[in-house]
Amino acid sequence: MKILQYLSLAAALTTVGAVSALTQVPNAPAPAVAAPNADPFPPVDQRFFDAPSPSLETVNGFLKSIWGYDSNRIWRVEGIQKTSAAGVTKVLVYVADKSQGSKVQPTQFFVTPDGKHAIADTVFDFGIKPFAERRGLFQEKTDGPARGSKSKDLLLVEFADLQCPHCKDGQPIVEKLLHDFPQARIVFQNFPLTEIHPYAYRAAAYGSCVAAKSNDAFFVYVQDVFNHQEALNPEVGDKTLANAVTAAGQDPTAVATCAASPATKEKIDAQIKLANDAGVDQTPMIAVNGHLLPLESLPYETLKQIIRFQAQQDGVSLTAK
Asked: Alpha helix (H) ranges present in 158-261?
């Protein structure tokens, strides 16, 4: 379930043709469609490069991190300029898609003085390796049940809410990822959106207690909750969770007691804080070595392309699938 009306820039830019996620430049000249194999971009004018940072190398490195998975996506940085706000830099980029006739679109964003963030419709991480810090955070702090590889070199973290219909719909995608990327470690991380899903927190707490005894039982529990998601309501919600615990082969009374404990509350609260600190703003969201992506909104083949590309960027060798 989205809790914002837009995707984060880093996520939105992964969709082919989604350059509109960057601020469109008013009245910027866009050349006509170029002839095949011709350079579609206007010549670079050095007058538009008057800011000391970020460097052209850094901007291109950032754009490669976002767009490099797509061999049809081409771009040219046309300006790195000072602004009237001290230390804030405007970056102008022309983008084209070779599969769509290389029609050029001008876009821009602003880089903050610390060089770590940029702003378009929202704030996002910036740099040659914009996902590295979040990758390290998730490698250290994600503590949900996991499947796949024991190695965290290729770490996919699914942020989900058990009362979220879109999270339910996203589970077949996760199953495909498990099959297609055996070298990945896929972690289920609770992110209950309590303001819109009143039973999500309790469902997460029950699941945490089930997982404490059996990792495999947890995924049985999750699937049963999703299968009966419409029954997560005040009338039969507790019974629905108890049934899911039974389906997972555990004692509902013991799990309910565990779920109500301060220790379990502390764990779920910490998982929510981790998601918030990392910039997760919707469910289902999947992080690919720190790169946050909307799990259900991307075509599956595009998601696979991004995972392969990110693995390559991080020096992870993948078995062909």
From this structure: 165-180, 200-213, 215-227, 237-247, 252-259
